[in-house]
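step: validate -> pass
step: tokenize input -> pass
step: predict -> running
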Amino acid sequence: MSTALRRLRRVALACIAVVGLLLVSSPAAVGHAVLVSTSPEDGSTVATLPSEIVFTFNENVTTPAYVAVEAPDGTKVTAGDARTDDTAVRAALTDAGIAGEYRASYRVVSADGHPISGSVYFTVTEGRTVEKTRDDEGADDASFLHEHRAHFLWGAAGVVAAAALLLWPRRREEKEEK
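step: predict -> pass
step: emit ->
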């Protein structure tokens, strides 16, 4: 194997390693809005259902914004559309008079255009007790690969482009030798 070919392989492997390290070490959601607080807080216990729920993010969020709050039996207690106010998303709630764990789910668009979604849970202590029939299975089940598929695609495209650029001079040399 020629020295030039070995050197080319080393450079190609180094480029692939650098791209791989950049993909692995990049922050989970560069530029995306992140939920910083809710009212009521995630995991908190309140006596009665508040008149509104507020999700606060670390940066501005835009419309469309969706909020859905469900009682333990699946009854929707969200009244009307969600409103955005810079970094906050608010939704009015109607009290169903049910005690138990409520799920509050949101889906907003961050300032960079990426949709952000998730759920928080809180418990209401006053009201009638009902059997929990709400299905929480898969409420927040977004895999790492699903969440970061764009990063992987851009990384793969970069590796292919780097390999093509590195191997292109070698093809020219082979054609000139013939």
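step: describe -> The first helix runs from residue 3 to 25.
step: cleanup -> pass
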